[in-house]
Amino acid sequence: MGDGREAGLLSTGAPADDETRERRRARGVTWSAVGLLLLVAAFQHELWPLTAYRLFSDVRTGTAASVELVAVAPDGTRTPVRLDPRNPVVATTGRQYPRVRDAAPGEQRAMVRAWLRAAGIDPGGVADARFERVVLALDPDTGERRETSRTLLVEVAP
User: Fold this and answer.
1) What is the pLDDT of residues 131-152, one digit of tens each?
2) Rounded CA separation 101/92 (Å)
3) Burial profile 57-79: b = 16 or more Cβ within 10 angstroms, e = fewer
4) What is the rounded CA–CA span in Å between residue 62 and residue 115?
5) Which of 98, 71, 99 lies closest to 83, judged by CA?
6) Within a 10 A sphere around the Cβ of 5, how many other Cβ atoms?
7) Average pLDDT over every residue of 106-130
8) What is the pLDDT at residue 128?
9) Looking at beta carbons, which pairs linking 102-108 to residues 24 or more positions away fall under 8 Å?
């Protein structure tokens, strides 16, 4: 205020009005964004890039479901295929089990053979590979998960 320039700018009204307008606009954008986030969370919608904040929801429930690969030998012996997540084949394809059902037969066979080899199982000794949906329930007394159902999704001859 020493040289009077600030007082002169404020008296014309232009810079003060611009600043007020910018603050109102910033508040409007902020409150709109917060309101939109609250609506998405309240109605449980997943609208990218917004989320309903259902983080770790499968951990909090009493049931869990997954797809499991089972190798069946010619004599009927069933062996669940356990894959090491550090294996490069598994690291790049391990989450594709649910996709196998919709893949072409040749692609299904190639995928199954790769997973069997990654698990150290000779595909030649397997009569068929089964992808099964397994549902587990949490026992309230022991805290352990127990299998409640198993559904065949697809069978593939390696």
Assistant:
1) 999 999 988 888 788 889 999 9
2) 18
3) eeeeeeeeeebbbbbeeeeeeee
4) 30
5) 71
6) 9
7) 91
8) 93
9) 105/156, 108/154, 108/156
Q: In what order do the strands lie in the sheet with 78-80?
A: 78-80, 63-72, 128-138, 145-156
Query: For residue range 25-36, what is the model confidence (pLDDT) as tens digits?
Result: 999 999 999 998
Counting beta carbons within 10 angstroms of the beta carbon of residue 80, is it exposed (0 to 12), middle (13 to 18) or buried (19 or more)?
exposed
What is the token pair recorded at 15?
A: 């810079």
Which of the 8 DSSP states describes residue 96? G
Residue 21 CA to residue 5 CA, distance in Å, equals: 22
Query: Per the confidence metrics, is the pTM higher than 0.85?
Result: no
Q: How many whole angstroms from its chain centre is CA 114?
A: 23
8 Å CB contact between 137 and 61? no
Token digits of residue 85: 């997540």
